[in-house]
Amino acid sequence: MIEEKIVKSIKLVKKGDQSAFEEIVEHFQGKVFAICFRMVGNKHEAEDIAQEAFIRAYINIQSYDENRKFATWLYRIATNLAIDRMRKKKPDYYLDAEIQGGEGLTLYSQIPDDNRLPEDEVESLETQSYIQKEIMALPAKYRSIIALRFIDELSLKEISEILEIPVGTVKTRIHRGREALRKKLRNV
Amino acid sequence: MNCNEEVVELMHQYLDGDLASNDEEKLRSHLNSCEDCQQHFRELKQTVALVTANIDLQPSQDFTMKVMNGLPKETKRTTVKR
Q1: Which residues of B touch A181 (CB under 8 A)?
Q2: Residue B54 near residue A185 (C-beta atoms within 8 A)
Q3: What is the span of the domain harbouring residue B51?
Q4: Where in this chain does the record put each RNA polymerase sigma-70 region domain (chain A) (predicted)?
Q5: Averaged over A59-87, what is the pLDDT?
Q6: pLDDT greater than 50 at residue A22
Q7: How many CB atoms lie within 10 A of CB A90?
């Protein structure tokens, strides 16, 4: 079982075996990265935050209580970092940042594309970037909840623990976020 | 039932796996008779599917390596005594 392996790795890391942390990073990087991406909407930044989250998790591993789910502990570190980043956010000019007044154009689309993708792949990439754009249009407090709920399908209670807000608030924000997205995504 | 609020609330509870069974019956029978709500419900389910769909998003290949290189050096074992 992969979960048992992870539990074992965590124990080893706690005992000071740094190399055992590699397995943990391998196992959780996709989810942590995706959650950060949903929150900040930018791959470079999401990767930066996700890396920082793992490093902080390593440094603070002694404070992780093994009776609780490791994923929620890790996601809490990651979402806190992402929330901090969103607060401090100044305009950034990354390749996939939107150009003002460009109607959804990104710098990527201005770079000539020599290796063409199959049509369905283009479509799904476009759909994905449209979905992300609509998520980014939501207030930040909704984005973290949408990220946690729809990337790792966490329970309302787990989300409430990660974000330290009451379950009732989580519910309301999921409902409102889902309604807002429904109006935007119904024609996809 | 008031389509605009009560039913929509039930739909969300359903999607959260949070709906009591008698309410589920209430929602089901309402959906059977109301096309607008059926449509609303379909759209919500589609939204969930779109947002949940395993996004083809992976961090870069060297992600793990970068994290491992960014960790503080192991304290006990690598301390050099002078």
Answers
A1: 47, 51
A2: no
A3: 3-55
A4: 24-90
A5: 94
A6: yes
A7: 4
The residue of chain A nearest to residue B60, with distances taken between CA atoms, is A47
CA distance A39 to chain B (A): 13
> Of A112, A101, A152, A108, which is closest to residue A129 (Cα–Cα)?
A108
Domain A2-99+112-185 has CATH 3.30.420.10: no
Kindly list the residues of chain B whose beta carbon comes within 8 Å of any beta carbon in chain A. 8-9, 12, 15-16, 18, 40, 43-44, 46-48, 50-52, 55-60, 63-64, 66-68, 70-72, 74-77
Per-residue pLDDT tens over the stretch B64-77: 999 999 999 875 55
Q: How many domains are contained in chain B?
A: 1
Q: At what angle do helices A2-14 and A70-88 cross, to 10 degrees?
A: 70
Q: Is residue B80 part of a domain?
A: no
Task: Using an 8 Å CB-CB cutoff, list chain A residues near B75.
Answer: 16
Nearest Cα to A58, choosing from A30, A17, A7?
Answer: A17
Which one, of A174, A70, A179, lies nearest residue B17 by Cα? A174
The two tokens of residue B7 are: 């039913």
Q: How much is the average pLDDT of A12-37?
A: 96
